[in-house]
Amino acid sequence: xxxxxxxxxxxxxxxxxxxxxMLPYLESRFGNASSIHGSGREAKVALEEAxxxxxxxxxxxxxxxxxxxxxxxxxxxxxxxxxxxxxKKGNHIITSQIEHHAVLESCKFVDNEGFEVTxxxxxxxxxxxxxxxxxxxxxxxxxxxxxxxxxEVGTIQxxxxxxxxxxxxxxxxxxxxxxxxxxxxxxxxxSNVDMxxxxxxKIHGPKGVGALYVRKGVRITPWTHGGHHERSRRAGTENVxxxxxxxxxxxxxxxxxxxxxxxxxxxxxTFYRRLVELIPDVVLHGxxxxxxxxxxxxxxxxxxxxxxxxxxxxxGVAVASGSxxxxxxxxxxxxxxxxxxxxxxxxxxxxxxxxxxxxxxxVEYVLSLLPEIVQRLRSxxxxxxxKQQKQSG
Length: 393
Ligand SMILES: *Cc1c(COP(=O)(O)O)cnc(C)c1O
Known about the structure:
Layout: E1 4-5, H1 16-26, H2 38-58, E2 65-68, H3 71-85, E3 92-96, H4 101-112, E4 116-120, H5 130-136, E5 141-145, H6 159-168, E6 172-176, E7 195-199, E8 210-214, H7 229-232, H8 240-255, H9 257-278, E9 282-285, E10 295-300, H10 305-314, E11 317-318, E12 320-321, H11 334-338, H12 343-346, E13 349-353, H13 360-379, H14 382-392
Parallel strand pairs: 1-11, 3-4, 3-5, 5-6, 6-7
Antiparallel strand pairs: 2-8, 7-8, 9-10, 10-13, 12-13
Helix pairs in contact: 1-8, 2-8, 3-4, 9-13, 10-13
């Protein structure tokens, strides 16, 4: 059976070039970067070279890049670390309703620890408005955390504008850029961000590694305690093979960014255009232009997203429901709810997220399956049958 993987927002395969860069650090060059002997120094050199690569891609200084165990840890460190370090200034934090759970749950944690959190609304396209942020900032606000690209719908937030509003008010600005780094050019200087979260496995690097950019001078308290690794911001023996792989993956993504953008756009635009010709009542979630080219979140009216996913899976096609993190629960996605998508439509959301290895043949294959699947599911859907009757009667 043909296999088509369209769940790159959940995770991606490690590229051969990345694996090749990592292997020596799992085998012969296994030293601990803190050891002073030759083997340790070898690991330390690799670690610092990786730091330079990551810094270069985002326009930071190497000393502003801190390696972590991934996007989740970076988000936790950014939020808890700055909340607690700046408690004397104030205890108010601002985020949005559509953040990844790594941000939302970190905010919930500090909320329980005596901080106050404001959750900014989004419009029906999933965009945060500058005016809402301006109004929410108070004298005791210390941090604003707004994601760059949403993992469910692919909407791109106006980072520069939001960052500038926070900066003008003297409030730190953090952005979860896990879905954008390596796919959209990011310059931490022009985008006014003070902290930026990144992850390896969303960009064809290994799982369990990522980084947090922290602008020089930002007051942040460590969240993992132990040795003096990562300039005492994040204790723990560095995951040298992972870090080397992550940096290589980011470097490659950045080099190929324009070509990949074009490739992704070509695939998703063709897919969407053909799909709406073949299937009636398809809803696209998120902004139609301010979006990354690789994510399409669609609802087929009258059909459960989970049923589409399972039907496609039986034919070798991997896609996700509204969000991979919430599958297995019956609650509608918090992102689609915040965008005021009616629950019966939100339930039907299916996320198609494309990657560099996908081809036009993959698109054709999925297009050859979907109309039949949706039609079959609609024929047994009480919701859809009623609607059709109403229309014809
Ligand atoms: C995947 C993801 C994360 C979590 O990153 P991990 O490296 O898997 O911990 C955080 N934020 C967003 C937007 C993501 O898509």
